[in-house]
Structure formats: structure tokens, C-alpha cells
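Recall that a protein's primary structure is simply its ordered list of amino acids. Everything else, from secondary elements to tertiary packing, is in principle encoded there. The following example makes that idea concrete.
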Amino acid sequence: MKIFQSETNLLQTLDRYDDLVRQCVDQKITFDEFCDLYNHFYSSYALDGHESDAEERALFERHAERIQAHAYIAQQILARLCSEEKAGLQSYKNAGRIGPATALEMLADVNLFWQNDRR
């Protein structure tokens, strides 16, 4: 292990960040609060496995579906984020940028996936 002390530690951490997504979608926290608290989770914890040993990479493979949801949030939502005002500009649209309203809709889709997947 490199980042996580155990599988339990990984699962508890995933639970905490999954919950931040739910809180944002349920409007218990604002999108700005979500961004501050989420704080680049996927990259901060090196969930792509680039800093992990073989044991931890195997752990990531066992929980790949949950981790992939956070990769999607990082790469397809947060990495494309700009202000709502700029998101309306054609040059930003052409570059694939999205505003907070669209980002929140996309987070809701991730949250819906988790709800459906765990039934």
C-alpha cells in the first residue's frame, strides 16, 4: 500500500467523497462548497494507481467502478469547468467548457448511476 492503509480505509474515503457528491446534488451544500471540499479528490489520492504498489492497484481494480465515477467527475466535469458567464460564450462552448449549472446536472447523473447500481 502507498496511499491507503487498508481496503477499509479506501472504502471509507470513497464513502466520504461519494457523500459529497450526494450532498451537492441534494442541495445540502452549494456547488462552490462541493468544489472546495472535493478538492481534486481523484488526483489528490492518485486513484489512477500511478503512485501505488501492486497490492493497492489490485485494490483499485476491485473497486474500479466506484473509482471510475470519480475519474469521470475529475476529467469530464471539474476539468471542463468555467464560470457560468463564460460557458455561454461560443469560444468556450467550442472548447468543451461547461458552467456550474451543467456541471451540477452531470453530477446528478453520476449520483443517479450510483443509486441505480446499488439497488
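The longest helix spans residues 7-25. The chain has a mean pLDDT of 93.
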